[in-house]
Structure formats: C-alpha cells, structure tokens
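Late entry, written up from scratch paper. The run itself happened at the end of the previous shift, but nothing got recorded in the book at the time, so transcribing now.
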Amino acid sequence: MINIGICDDEESTRREIREICGELAGDLGFQAEFVLFEDGNEVLSSSVQLDVLILDIEMPGINGIETKQRLDIFGLT
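Output as recorded:
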C-alpha cells in the first residue's frame, strides 16, 4: 500500500488527480490510499505518513513551493 497526498486549492482538480492516480496504481498493480489537502497548512499539520505528495504550485496562503521548503526543513522530503 502506498499513501499518496494530493494538495490543491481546487476541489475538482484534487478529485481529477486522485482519479488519474488511482487508475495508474491499478494499471501498475499496487494499491494506493489517498489523502486530499486544500492547502499547504493542512499538509504541514497532517500526521499521515505519505509516500508521495503532489503539490499545486499556486495556492492561497502557503503555496506548493513554500510547503515543500518547509517539509525539507523537517527532513520529510
């Protein structure tokens, strides 16, 4: 099982990415669990252990680049 985080401020985009990743996981023969986030703050405050994180670059508040940089500080990337 692989845990995939999807962070995007647009709900429709989160759902679309989840659908694409779910189909790809099935095609490749592995199971995936998805965690959806609306913004970088949700990612940073989450206690879920993620194997993959897909980040939107442009989001209100903490954008995807800043979220990634903060995760680097904590040694999580």
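The first strand starts at residue 2 and ends at 7.
(Scratch paper discarded after transcription.)
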